[in-house]
Amino acid sequence: MNWIKNYFSIIVITILLFEFISFLITKMEFFLINETPIFYVDSKNKQFQDIAYGRTEREAWGAWHVANKTFRHSKYNYDQQVCFDVLMEFNEIGARDESFVNLKNNNIFLLGDSFAEGYGVSLKDTSQFFIEKKMGLSVSNFGASGNFGPLQELLIYKKYRNLPHQGLIVYVLPSNDFTDNDINLWLNKQHRYRPYFSPEPNPLIPFYFSNAIKKDDLFIVNKDLNLKQLIKEHFWSSNALRTFLMILRKDATREDIAQNNNLIKSYFYDANSTQQNNLIIAYEAILDLAEQRDVLFVIIPSKTDISRSQMESEPNNYKQQAWYQGFKSFENRQQNRVSVLNLMDHLPSETEHLFFNCDQHWGPKGNRWAADVITNHIRAKKLFNSFIK
Questions:
Q1: Which terminal Cβ of the chain has fewer Cβ within 10 Å, N or C?
Q2: Where would I find the beta strands (DSSP E) of 101-244?
């Protein structure tokens, strides 16, 4: 019996030591994920499930949300200070918005990824909300986090384009929109249930990996046990375990940037010809589906893109590339009126305050700034003019 007690003691000590080391490494922000467990944080939103249980991958476009539910989205700095802690509510189709049952005639669709969804901010701090209030428009938010690219935007627009709307605003994030649906970059990573651009001949025919699993949430667990949620919410070692899994699955690397001729990698400048071509083809297909409606493309620079532009001897040389020229050519279409707004051209002198200090997304100030630039552009170009108050 003594050997059993000794064996048990060794296991307990090992677990406690692993937890303590994980705590220290989290504090030093050396993991890929350095989150404070909810157990150690005083929050009014503890009763809501984590947002990972509100994100699904079962629709044709992959990443989406659980309908008619509310989830908690939180992130904390290494010193346990709140970076953001918000509730995300999804309507009857799973969009982060109010009900789409009785949409107004002056409704505008918003397509995009996490920047459109309003990652990390309350609904009243999203760019969508600010645009609605400033313009007197109803903006239906079809944005989603989770590597949501142009092919997915095309698929979701095909699904819901019969809902009342008078035009579209499309958020374009070069930082990942060139890669989200690039099958070549995902061959050796975890095969998620999401569409990719097909190889020849037609890239717009969605390709799905045969071993991809449809998910009702991002954790495949017995929901009666919720073991992963229990570990995440109570143990510092969850950061170590999740970091290990991300590296094992090749979902991420420690560095978010790569070096190319001593310059930070930025897809404003570094997208290959296939990535550029597929991006433009997908957005051209969205324009065709929009028929006579006005469409505004909003090109969004990330922190990394801004840093790269500051390092370039000719910061605007990306405007000569095929992808940017493709967007500009959209403005000459006869079928519908198209405008392109490049937020890189409208950056304030200081840009750090636009983003969370713990994250790459816009904070409330960034969302308000973007909405101001967008609404000024809409007024100047007289887009959706019949419906602006």
A1: N
A2: 107-111, 138-141, 167-172
